[in-house]
Amino acid sequence: MTAIHSVEDLCALIQSRITWARGEEPQTLAPDTPLLEQGLLDSLAIMNIVAALDKQAGIELPETEIVAANFRTPAALWSVVSVAPRGAQA
Predict the structure, then answer these.
(1) Whole-angstrom distance, CA of residue 20 vs CA of residue 1
(2) CB of 61 within 8 A of CB of 13?
(3) Given CB 3.0 to 4.6 Å as the disulfide criterion, which of 29, 32, 71, 88 pairs with 11?
(4) At what angle do helices 7-17 and 74-81 cross, to 10 degrees?
(5) What is the band of 27 on the pLDDT scale with cuts at 50, 70, 90?
(6) Residue 26 per-residue DSSP state
């Protein structure tokens, strides 16, 4: 499992789930990167991030927390992830 211990770890996970446009250089995400405003996330990317958090890091986001407001920035998502239930970590 991939440990997510900080907002920087979360930024790396999010960055790995963004589909960058052909010829577009992947950017490094900061905690305050406006993910939705910049069009970096769509509904499929959000679900991929949720699935990766569960499968790779054992972090289970309640369905009630999978809302646009929590995906505006990595820092906004971290405020949810940091208190979310965690499965057994390897």
Answers:
(1) 25
(2) no
(3) 29
(4) 120
(5) confident
(6) P
Contact 68, 36 (CB under 8 A): yes
Q: Tell me how long the chain is.
A: 90
Find the angle CA(54)-CA(71)-CA(84) to the nearest 5 degrees: 40
Q: CA 24, CA 77: separation in Å to the nearest integer? A: 25
Q: H-helix or E-strand containing 9?
A: helix 7-17
**CA triple 42-13-31, angle to 5 deg:** 80
Query: CA-to-CA distance for 37 and 43, rounded, in angstroms?
Result: 14
For residue range 35-84, list pLDDT tens digits in order.
Answer: 999 999 999 999 999 999 999 899 999 999 999 999 999 999 999 999 98
